[in-house]
Amino acid sequence: MRVILKTGYGTRFACFSSGMTIDRKTEAEEGQVMELHHRRSWRTWISTCLILGAVFLPYLTTPIMAQTTTGGLRGVVTDVTGAVVPGAMVVAKNVATGVEYRTTATSEGIYTIPRIPPGKYDVRVEAQGFKAAEVTGVEVGVGKDTVVDFRLEPGAITEVVTVTGGGEVLLERDTAQISATIQSRRIQDLPINVAGGGLDFVVLLLPGVRTGFGNVNANGVTLSVNGNRARSNNFTIDGVDNNDLSIGGPNYFVQNRDLVQEYQVITNNFSAEYGRNQGAIVNIVSKSGTNEFHGTLAWYHRDRKLFDSLTNLEKRAGQKDPLPDLVNVFDYTIGGPIVKNKAFFFHAGHFIRNPQVADLRTTSLAPTPEGIQMLKSAFPNNPAVQYYADYSAFALPIGNPTIRPDVPASTITIGNLKVPVAAVRRTVPLSNRLDEFNVRGDVHPSDRDRVWGRYFIQDRPGKDFLVDVRGWTGDIPFRTQQAGGGWTRNLSTRSVNEFRFNYSRLFVIFGGGGSGGKGNIPHPDNIDKALAFLNVTFRADNGAPLLTVGPATNLPQGRTVESFQFNDNFTLTVGRHQMKMGIDIRRLRNAVPFLPNVNGAFTFSTAQRLADNSPNFLTVALGPATLKYTETDQFYFFQDDWRIRPNLTLNLGIRYENTG
To answer: Which phi and psi angles does 486 have, rounded to 5°?
Structure first.
C-alpha cells in the first residue's frame, strides 16, 4: 500500500508498506532459515500505514521514485551445516582503487556494507576456526545491493577458498525496484549518435521506454516511460539534482560517453529515499580516478558531402550536391592516482565543431521583391501594409532568399492591385560549437572516510540558432555549470552517514546577436524593442497559404536557473533491519525574461482588411518583462528494509515533502 498526501501548498506525505521481495529459492538451498522476530514492529508498521491510508486515501496520487549514486553489499555468513557464523569479518576491496570497506556479521550472520562506489570488488570473509573465503570480481551497481552469501569450511584462517567471478552466488533479491544499469563498457560499445546527440538514446533499449513529446530539454532524445509524459522524469548526476526547473528535462547534457561510470534507469521503485517525479529516474554516475593512470582519446568525423546522397526534396529543387555539413567531435579523458590507495583525479573534455548550412524552405508564399515595391508604392501611408512589405520573407537579407522554382507562384489581390508572391528558400551558414570540461577528485583520508568533489561546465555560443525560413534570427547562447561533492563516513561497522551538496546554474537566452540585420530578434534585456507579429490568414489567388510576418510571439526570452542542494542520509543496520533516514534541502532561484506578444500580434483575415489597416484581432501582453521567484524545498524520509528471512524482504518507508 502506498498513500500520498499532496496539498495545494506543495506538501506531500507518503507511507510505504509495499515493496515485498520474495526470493523463491527453497529453504534447503538457502541453508538455515531465520526465525521470524520483531512481530511487534511488524504490527506497528501495518497499523501505521492502515491508519494513514484511511485518513489520506482521498489524496491518493502517483508513486514516488528513488535514486542514489552508490551501491552496497549484503549477505549471510554460514558454515557447511547452515548454521550462522556471527562476528565474521567481511572486507570488500575496490579492485580499481584498492580502498577497503570493512564490517562484521551480526549475531544472525548477516553482514551489510552500504553506500560504496559502484565497481568491481574482491570480497573476503574471515572467522576464527574457519578457512577464509573470497569472491573476486563482484560487480556492485548503483542504486542496489549486491547479495553475496558465504559458506565457510572448517580449517585454518590462513587457508583461503576463492571463487573467481562470483557469478554463481550473486543475486539481487532485496528490492522490488524495476531498473536497468548500463555499465561504462557497454555504453562505449553501443552504436549511438556521438555527434552531440547526448546519451539518453541508450534508454530506448529498455522495455517500457519510447520517445517522448512536448517542449522539454532533451539529452539526445526526450523520454516517455510507462506512458508518463517527458516532463515527469527525474534526472540526477552523482546522486544530486540535474533538472531544468523551468521546462523539465536535464540541466546538464552528458554527451561524452567516456565520462560515465554507470548509467541507471529506474522505471518503478518502492523506496522512500527520494521523490519529486512519477516518471523514470535517469541516474548518471561520473567516473573517478584509479590506482592506474589511464586515458582515452577519440575523434568522430563525418562529412555529408562525401557520404550522403541528396534527399528527394533536394533533387526536386534542382540541387546538385549536398549542402556542407562537417561534423567533428573530439573527446579525451585522463585519470589516475595522486596518492596511491588514497587520492585520485579524473578529467575529461568534449568538443564539437560542426560547421553546416541550414537549408530553409517553405511552400507558403510571400511577396516577391517586385511585389514588395508594388505594396510600398501603392500604400505609402498604410503602416500595416508597409510593415508587411518591409519585414516579409524576401525583404530580410539573411541566407540570400531566392524563389523556389518547384513551387507554383501566384498573386494576392488587394483592391485593383495584383501583387506577385512566391515560395522562399534561404541557406544560412551555422557554426555549431560546444565546449565541455569536467574534473573530479576523490580522497580517502582514513579507512572510515571518503570525500569527493567535481566541477562540470558546458558552453555553446549558439550563433544564429533562431534563424527561420521567414528571415528572422537571433542567437541562443547557453552555459550550464555544476559544482558539487560529498563526504561518506563509516561511523561504525553498523552505521554510515553520507552528505552531498551541489550548486548548479543554467543560463540560456533566446534572442540578441544574429546576422540578419533588421530581422534580428532583440536580446531579452531589450524586450520592449521586439517587433509585432502580423498574421495574414487569407490566401493567395491560387489558394496557397501566405507566410506570417514578424518574430515568433514567444521571443525574445531566456532563463537563469540556480539550485543549491544539501542532502544527508544516515544508514543503520540492526539485526535484520537496514534503516535509512535522510533530509534533502534545496534552495531554488529562477529568473525568466518572458513577455509574449509584448508589442502585439495582429490578425488580418482578408486582403481588404490589410489594405484598410483594420485587423480582426489584436493580442497584447501587459506586465513585468522578467519573472523572478525563489523557493525552498524540503524532503524527509525514513526507510526500513526488513529481511524477515533469506527469501523474504519487506521494503517499508515513510516520506514527507514540502515544495515552496
So the answer is: -165, 165
Question: What digits encode the pLDDT tens for the residues 462-491?
Answer: 999 999 999 999 999 999 999 999 999 999
Nearest in space to 276 (alpha carbons), one of 445, 106, 67: 67
Q: How far apart are CA 184 and CA 290, in angstroms?
A: 15
In whole angstroms, give the CA distance from residue 63 to residue 55: 18
DSSP 258-306: GGEEEEEEEEE---SS--S-SS-EEEEEE----SS-EEEEEEEEEEHHH
CATH 3.20.20.10 fits 179-286, yes or no: no
Report residue 639 as a C-alpha cell.
526507510
For the record, the C-alpha cell of 568 comes out as 544527508
CA gyration radius for the chain?
31
The pLDDT, as a whole number, for residue 645 is 80
Return d(Cα 284, Cα 143) in angstroms, integer: 11
pLDDT at position 269 is 61
User: How far is residue 560's CA from residue 557's CA, in Å, rounded to a whole number?
Assistant: 11
Could you tell me the residue ranges of all domains in the chain? 179-286, 294-339+342-476+511-554+594-622
Q: How far is CA 561 from the centre of its chain?
A: 15
Q: What is the pLDDT of residues 56-97, one digit of tens each?
A: 333 333 333 334 678 889 889 999 888 889 999 999 999 999
Where in 315-472 does DSSP place strands (E)?
A: 326-339, 343-367, 402-403, 410-414, 417-446, 449-460
